Amino acid sequence: MSYISDLIACPDRQEQLNVFFGCDKATMLKTNESSLAQFLMSPINTNNLLKTAVAPGGGKLRTVEAVFTPRIKSDDVSTSINRESCVASTPQGNRSESYTLDPDQGVQIERKIRMADLAAICKENEAYITEMLMMMMDAAIRKMDVQLASQIVLLSGNFGQGETGVDGNDAKIVATLLSNGGLNSDFISEIDFASENAGYCYRPFVFGWGDIYKAYTKLAASCCADNGLNVAALASSVGLQGSFIPNRNVKTSLGSDADFITLDPGAVQLLTYNGFEGYGNSVSDQTFVQTTIVHPQTGLTFDYQAKFDCGYWHFFVSLAFKAVGVPTDLYFSGDIYDGVTGVNKYKIVNPS
Fold first, then answer.
1. Taking the model in full, what pTM does it have?
2. 112 C-beta neighbours (distance < 10 Å), count
3. CA–CA dist 98, 78 (Å, integer)
C-alpha cells in the first residue's frame, strides 16, 4: 500500500500519475464542481460592464447604481381614444438598484514550502511553484462554486403569470419519468415553455445533479464532458433538448437530487475585486511578491502573495466575489413578469 509523504526521493524515472493511469483524476477542475463559476465568466453570460464598474482597476472599489424604468403594462393602455383630454394622470419615473461587494468576503487558500526542500523536489522550482499555484486556484474555484450555488438560489424569482405546477417554495414541479418507469421527455418542453412564459431573453441553461442529470443523459442530450466546460459549444448545441450543465453544488444548496435551477444568460453577474491590482498595490522583490495572477481556464483573476520568512516561502491566493442578479422590481406590480429575475427553481416529482 502506498502512502504520500511531503517529499519523495528522485527515482531513476519519475512521471506524473496521469501518465501511467490516464485522466488526471487528482488535479482536474471537473465541470460538476465548477460549472457555475465558469458559466458566469463565459462570454455568453457577461460583457463585464458591471464587473468593471464596481471594481474598475487600480485597487479601487465602489458602489454602482443601476437606473432602470420598468416597462409600461399593456393593461395601462386604453382601448378608447379621447382627443379632447390634454391632461395625463399617470406619473412616469425611474427606479434603481445598487451593486457592491464586501472586499473581505470570498475565498482564500495558503500553502508553505521550506526553502531547503525545493532543492530536493524532482522539478524545476518555477515549474513546481506554478503547478502548486494552479492547484490552489483550482481549489479556490471549487469553493467559490459552492458559495455561488447558495447565492444564485437566493436570486431565484417568480415564474411568469399563469404558470402552472408551482409549489409554495416557488419551484415548478416536473416529471422526468412515466408511471411505467420510462422516460418522460415532456419535461424539456415544460422547462422551455416556463422560461418563455417568464420572459427569458435566451433559451434557459439548466444546472443540477442527480435526477435531472440522469434524465438528460437518457435523452443523450448531456452536452458537457467532465474534462471542461465549452460554453460556446453548449450554446451552439441548443435545440429542442435545451442546454444542461452538471453542477452538484446546486443540488446541495437546494437540498435534494430532485431539485435544479434554470438561468437566463446574463441574468446573474459575478462581481470580483482584486486588492493587489493597480499602481502601488503590486510589489515584487527577492523576498516578497504581491500581485495578481489569472486562472487560464476560467479567466478569473486572483490576488497573490508570496513571502519568504524564517526559511519558508508562504503563498496566499484569494479573491473577493459575489453573484448579483437583476432587481426583483424590474417590472411593475401586475405585469405578467412581475417578480421575474431570470433564475428559477424546479423540483422533479415522478409518479409512484
1. 0.85
2. 11
3. 34
